[in-house]
Structures
1.
Amino acid sequence: MEEIVVESLLRGNREAQIEAAIELSNLSRKQRQKVAERDIISPLLSMLQSQDSITTEISLSALLSLAFGSERNKVRIVKAGAVQMLLEILQSETKMVIVELAMAFLLILSSCNRNKIKIASTKLIQLLVGLIGLDQLTVQAKLDGIATLHNLSTLQQIVPLVVSSGAPYALLQVINSCDKSSELAEKASSLLENIVHHSPESISGIGGAIEVLVEAIEEGSAQCKEHAVGILLGVCSFDRETNRGMILREGVMPGLLQVSVDGTRRGKEMARELLLLLRDCSGYVIKDKQSKIEIVEQIMREIDQEGERIPGTMLKLVEEMISKLST
């Protein structure tokens, strides 16, 4: 069967190639690895450029099966010119199943470190940034697009290109428009936190950015809240004087206090660190019960002075936070 697949792909007509590509997807991983040594990637890429959507879909599925679980094949496929072809497909294709396959294929290819620079050297990053904000794109395609950008941005030298392509704004738009407790919000906020870690000024000029992140802290899943707190911590640490007031004015305190008490372990740590930056608690020395009460009262006075009101039900959270900060 392996020999028939190879011969059909290399020397068969288009109909025989289609049948061979379908059969290729059904082979075991070991069998696929063997046939990949026989220069079958080139004819599959040629099929990828077909005007017939069925042929394109079948060749994408076959290439996906070759790339899955094989770093060597991922490198071979990229070297053969697949990224440019995928770029052209995503720019022109309207059939969503092909778009989803292309996005999944890019995600797999981008997981290989040896491919990242080559992928980033194309216009693919700009295209992905534009695509993840489209309403007509499926959630799965958006998730794969964001995951591809995340893979690429693990190389620090690629982050500036991701930022200059408008990713921070696009990700904020995704977070703002989707369910804050969804996987999409989690992945978008995770990538944005990674970007801000390397480039904390990247969201400074984006109107409404702080508001979106505060809403994520209030309404998001535990992971989304963690990433949103991490982003605000990065922003505030980078330029406290400029950003502290803006963060407070957006009403961050109730949600931030909640995360400091019952968030993820990492979320709690970052929330408490951010609280210290926002409230300037670093100089407080807690000696006894009375001093804790005084600190709580001082925090409440500072909050009121900023024009923000915390409901009475939050007082217990404030006390818990102060207690934990002292331990």
Note: DSSP finds 21 helices and no strands in the chain.
2.
Amino acid sequence: GCLHAHETDSTFCLVLGVCGDEFSILRSPQSVVFRDGGWPIPGDRIPDVAALFMGFSIEEDLPWPGLAAGDLFHRPRAAVLVTVKGVDKLTLPAKGISYPIENAVPFSLDSVANTIHNLFSEETPVVLQLAPSEERVYMVGKANSVFEDLSVTLRQLRNRLFQDNSILSSLPLNSLSRNNEVDLLFLSELQVLRDIVTLLSRHKHLAKDHSPDLYSLELSGLEEIGKHYGEDSQQFKDASQILVDTLQKFADEMYNLYGGNAVVEMVAVKAFNSPLTRKTRSILQSSQSDTDNPYNLAYPYNYNYSVIFNIILWMMIGLALAVIVISYNLWNMDPGYDSIIYRMTNQKIRMD
């Protein structure tokens, strides 16, 4: 399978690659426009690029000229990000636009996943975030039913490899061994890629619905092979080639499942600059904030402020005017002429 995909009349595919300190656009649809200019992209803003081409807003503007304003009415139906650790470049045959990466810090697609969850909770989005070797898994929406049988623990991954229809029977292992734990971890991650395609193909209706889907996969098996055998070893070279072939096939199959309207991104990074830490509040934060903010300045301006201000302001003005008009009319009402109660009473008195 080749990583780049063929265009059809109405559907397109975007395949993105990030190789070491390079962010490469291998193919883009008409609805997503990337400019060729070699502008560096900060590593921590890669999720924002994904959010923008999916059609979502981001909290902080992205002053990066590489991504142009595309077609707002035709957005990709899926974004797939595969992060490969332990190698600074994967040799891919496809040529495309490339951008250098500034400061390759760890990133996650949590913000994009949360946006999809909040906006499409009533529909059928599929959100899957998975790091097999670290046993990290996060599923939202229909992912729980689609990927119910997916191997997510190390024991499940190992058992899956020794079943009849696993990749051990079809892949040329070359110098890799089926008796070595490091080799088996690497191969089990490739098995996960194949199983994702297999399980998703049984639920093709989810790939054709209107809610966007998100897949974020982190593979560190190649990094372990590099540490165990050395990066000049035949095993590392063979594993790299097997990984490239498998990723190309995976990208091609995901593209086809979504009718050509899918985005496949790939990040190959030798080593991240700093560990990924979740933002958490600490009980010591209040005491620290005094030193950070000695002048008691207000918090930074939020772009939602003007929207909320206008909603509240005009609602208050409208309610105040309504109260004044109603009060004035009630005060000046002629009971004999305006009120149906007095009118009915007068007629009854006359009849008696």
Note: The chain is about 40% helix and 15% strand.
3.
Amino acid sequence: MQLGPRPAALGLLLLCAATVGAGDAEELHYPQGEHRSEYDREALLGGQEEVDEYVKLTPEEQHKRLKSIIKKIDLDSDGFLTESELSSWIQMSFKHYAMQEAKQQFVEYDKNGDGSVSWDEYNIQMYDRVIDFDENTALDDAEEESFRQLHLKDKKRFEKANQDSGPGLNLEEFIAFEHPEEVDYMTEFVIQEALEEHDKNGDGFVSLEEFLGDYRRDPTNEDPEWILVEKDRFLNDYDKDTDGRLDPQELLSWVVPNNQGIAQEEALHLIDEMDLNSDRKLSEAEILENQDLFLTSEATDYGRQLHDEYFYHDEL
């Protein structure tokens, strides 16, 4: 299984938290294969308290705030929302909430309130104690050694994010640590970290075999479905120059979350569902006619934007 960085963080614990219980969540979200829009509000508004707050908004206030958001999405002010405008807005929303989350985490990690997060403070927040592994001494237990390797990678990322070489990370550096995909000076680190993990022959590229990791094909049996899916992703999504290997820039498209692709898919979905006159764009009237659908989509972060003045206030 290939473990690429996720938007929220690159650490092992957050990655595990994102995958545990995924099957149960999928069943709740799509019971018997049918989409249940209520799940989006319940799971993605940010908790029951925010769900309750959403319900308390009067229809008039929902209407007013939604119209304000529509106006902001309409970049050329022509009265219609195109796929490109919707996609750009959704990507901006992804980044905004990622940054807000990092700012909230910064306060939690900064134990002494001095405006910076030290490596010790990071460890205490994550593991309730300071952990210090010897870089040159492997552990006998396989599980402990795996954790040691991941912890050392986190430490390297922490040090790379620390541009001023101070005793800790300021807010901007902490954001770079938590979201290296959003910060230009971390790009090279992300690429090198991925090469160290996957480029087994050290040629500076990742082949299909290296991409698939430890999988070894049984010539007497057909490849399992997940391997076919991964091969298709390698060939059609990542290997842009079709040379059978991923160069550093192609590798980046694999290990960094493709929020652009997610946003484009959601934008197309909204147009497919809400475009009543088949002109491939959405008018304010079409959106208000399908208000519930719009409020259970990425375009409003499942309604959360109606509670965030950053989005519905007159000045963004």
Note: The chain has 17 helices and four strands.
4.
Amino acid sequence: MSTCRFLRTEALSWMSDVENVTEGHSQDLALQPVWDYLLQNHHDHLRSPLFPVVLSVTTYFFLVGLYTVLDMLAPHWPCINRYRLHPDRPITWPNIWTTLWVTIYNHLLYIFPAAVAQWLWRPPTPLPREAPTLWSFFLGILGCMVVFDFQYYLWHLLHHRVPWLYRTFHAVHHQYNQPFSLVTQYLSGWELFSVGFWATVDPILLQCHCLTTWGFMVFNVYVSTEDHCGYDFPWAMHNLVPFNLWGGAPKHDAHHQRPGTNFAPFFSHWDWLGGTHTVPTPSSHKTGEICKNKSTLFLKKSQSKMV
């Protein structure tokens, strides 16, 4: 009787060990079916140096198109307008056309030639047969976010503290002190190049898998667009990440109204450490103005009154 009990205990223990090993193994291979499908059906497209550019650009215009539809519906649909940071100041068609034109201009003048140059001179991307594990996938994206966050915090801070850099390169982005989605890439060529350069190089520095790199690019575009969208949705990142660790649309909206605060694009810790962190107040949302200022205003006003 005791022998049977012993064998049963050993069998149950062995089955438990097998289940644990199988569960861990299946978790490691969770992305493999997706990666196999991509390799089998889209191998040539994925290897092209143009693919990361196309992925980022299409993601951006898809998200901007979605938010722009919401902007047009918000004045007529209270269920949408209630989530806007400035519900009493609707987005106008002149705002949309102006920012859209600058975005298209930048893509034609900077992004398209850079993409063609990559296509001509950069070799096709080697694609490994194995997918990244779930752990390495999310850890790689987090690592790229942390590095990018630090890089852009320094760049952003420098371009606000040095008047020449602000006037020459960054002032155009602050011509709207009430951001909406199309303001995300309402940038100078230098700023667009800087952001694109780090988003491309950081996954290489961290030796990320191709799938991880593309995941970071998509997430980076999503967060940048969300920061400028002008909405405070319950599912927004700053409402999901605890302890006020994430920036989000309200803090970046406050940055456009008080340009000496909230420089980091993702997290809040660098602004805490640098003494540039501020929490937006409801009154700051009510006082925001959505007007496009002439660049000469930035040449004449001090940094404390930059709009």
Note: The mean pLDDT is 85.
